[in-house]
């Protein structure tokens, strides 16, 4: 066969085969027939993007699709796949795009679609009236690059003809994967029209939610039948709860629930337990209104973005995108844009910033060949491969080339004043991979760039076992000092974090008088139904934000182990370590009383240089007394009450204080709980407890307290049973985070198998307690640059500590009224100049809006 191929081979990249070759095609393909497959249902055909690069059929070398695996490869990478797999037969796809002049436009219109027989989903913004396409397809046999033109060869074996036709007409693989996830979200639930809602008087507040069966405050779902707020299940990425929403459905058969925090005027995330999938509810606004939630108070602007006050947001869009400036486009390595796939700008801006960091460049682009050589047989599903591919696409300059001279001349001749834009890259394969299995990022809705950054960091850490972990540069330890306001005793704990969330105190605005006057005029205009006044943006000093971060904050549901009761507590946070790269998120978003997500319109004078040294943690100070290491009483669910517990009325409670509170009109059971949880310290203290907890769903439920047969509340080592082993699923979740199995089991046993409390227990019970005093020494001796530590715990997280002095190098800005709508752009400082990345448009920035960003990225300054 090899001699036959050499005799009749068409040189690679050249014209048609001769008649003799066509006559012997059947015999020629016989040795390769076992390797040629017809795509079956479920097979993904990647024919519009290379698995290792952003080459496509429109690239100079076209795209090669393996006729066995249906993976696509550019000319530079197809040889690697052939050597690794031995697959010899590929379909070579090439599309030529030609711009049609005005004179030839009419003549070309009848022929434009004749040669375009490939079903390709490419992503160029071509106007069908200005361009024509010419498609070519041929089979190529490796390693001799023997070419068989398609589709005009009748002598091909039937199997080959069927396979070629199926590949040519198949949708691309990752597009099908995305469509599947989107289609699941748009199915109307069969329960939507006839949903029964109980008239039980439940009203849901706009914030402060928690699961009614546990203490979870994340991943909460509102049951649309009875208004119960319950936690979801634990997800692989570390989010989730204890599955109480599903348990509630099994007990009640109430089918529909909406995820709290996702409600916007455009809809919400709704799940049907009965149908076991995400669904649509056309009557969701009515169903939410039943519980006091109004989701339709926002209007839409002409560009389709949700908006409450149109005029402020118009100014914001112009300022952040620098619309009034004639920006100069830049090209080359590091200046490659990312095309918007439809509400995917949160992904593009985040990845642009990450790959401007040397550690990410070195981990993925620096190891590009090694990652590619050791990639699995399906590189589209390998995180490291797709990260390396994205990094190379952004940094190589291969997809960011300046216009050639002929294009500039044509632009001048046609009097086109539109700025020439680069091609950029289209990260569909990357988005399909990193969003796989995630309920939010797998959708085509806008997302929060902050949440996506944490999601990517999580993926990087999970896929960096045994290799360099570039996300180490973001990780830092936070010391939380919690103080009981009554006993004055304190507790110090540590936690890992990646982002510093900075409050934005509008009350500290330097133009507060202007804001008050504007609000008065706005309300007057609203009452008189006249035009709104010119909006005023709050100007908040950065020092005020830093001061708000460092001040004590109240702790919700604080249980004092010194008082053995719930009490008032305050918490302050400090840095145990400073990261190599500091990410600051401005807390601009909040919920109004009408449940409408609002964005605070403000500007902050963010500094180019930042010194946080004074925020370094100091640890336990002389004269401070630690809170006892005791666990709060375990409140058991209804079905376990009475087993090993004394009835509530057996608890010693100051009945006179209960009567004083009851006479004020509060439910008697709530009064009993208030007196109990404040340690019988009087009606006044109990009254304060009632005010702080009266909006909780279980406020008026009967008190469930531990038996008083013991001398006092059980300690952490006594409360749970140590005989039974914790659930293996919970142990696996903790060990997947890097904690030893023995420590995970011990933590779960000590916290009655509560995952959230188990994590806190791990950080407050380090294995190596002999070095516990070293944290207090950090303030006296500044650590070395880039010094690694494990937070006094050999099994703990790797911390890269150093001085707390930083310089701003990037920021991500958001336009719109909610993180679930609007648009993101980013500015990055490169070669001493600021560059704006607005999707695929990359230009030099003239007025970087550093005062209006959402997330800021600082790099640590060296000691010098």
From TrEMBL:
Where Zn(2+) is bound, by residue? 211, 214, 231, 244
What Gene3D superfamilies is this protein classified in? Cysteine proteinases, DNA helicase RuvA subunit, C-terminal domain, Zinc/RING finger domain, C3HC4 (zinc finger)
**Compositionally skewed regions (Low complexity) per UniProt:** 705-721
Any single GO BP term: proteolysis
Molecular function in Gene Ontology: cysteine-type deubiquitinase activity; zinc ion binding
Pfam families named among the record's database cross-references: UBA (PF00627), UCH (PF00443), zf-UBP (PF02148), zf-UBP_var (PF17807)
Per UniProt, residues of the UBA domain are 652-693, 725-765
Q: What is its EC number?
A: 3.4.19.12
Keywords, comma-separated and alphabetical: Autophagy, Hydrolase, Metal-binding, Protease, Repeat, Thiol protease, Ubl conjugation pathway, Zinc, Zinc-finger
The organism's superkingdom is given as Eukaryota
Q: Could you tell me what reaction this enzyme catalyses?
A: Thiol-dependent hydrolysis of ester, thioester, amide, peptide and isopeptide bonds formed by the C-terminal Gly of ubiquitin (a 76-residue protein attached to proteins as an intracellular targeting signal)
Looking at the record, which segments are called Disordered?
A: 703-730, 765-797
Database matches in SUPFAM superfamilies:
Cysteine proteinases, RING/U-box, UBA-like
Domain named UBP-type: residues? 187-295
Q: Enumerate the spans annotated as USP domain.
A: 336-861
Q: Supply the PROSITE patterns for this chain.
A: UBA (PS50030), USP_2 (PS00973), USP_3 (PS50235), ZF_UBP (PS50271)
The catalytic site is made up of: 345, 823
What InterPro entries does the record point to? Papain-like_cys_pep_sf, Peptidase_C19_UCH, Ub_carboxyl-term_hydrolase, UBA, UBA-like_sf, Ubiquitinyl_hydrolase, UBP13_Znf-UBP_var, USP
Under what name is this protein listed?
Answer: Ubiquitin carboxyl-terminal hydrolase 13
User: What is the scientific name of the source organism?
Assistant: Paramormyrops kingsleyae
